[in-house]
Amino acid sequence: MIFITGDTHRELDIHTINPREFVEGRTLTRDDYVIICGDFGCIWDGGSGD
Asked: Taking CA 20 as the corner, what is the angle to CA 19 and CA 24, rounded to the nearest 5 degrees?
């Protein structure tokens, strides 16, 4: 299965890929894809790995 979503920003949109709302995500396998088109502002926390 392939799932596509738009911009995802930490505080504003993270709920859209949270298992409570993205129920299909609970059964994802290595053969499935979640593609985020646009900004994905969830990995930046100000740490040295940014």
From this structure: 50
Contact predicate 3/24, CB 8 Å? yes
Q: What is the pTM of this model?
A: 0.59
| Residue 49: band (very low, low, confident or very high) from pLDDT cuts 50, 70, 90 | low
Q: Which two tokens stand for residue 5?
A: 């979503």
How far, in Å, CA of 4 to CA of 16, rounded? 11
29 Rama class: left (phi>0) / alpha (psi -120 to 50) / beta = beta
Mark out the alpha helices in 1-50 (DSSP H runs).
10-13
Q: CA 21, CA 13: separation in Å to the nearest integer?
A: 11
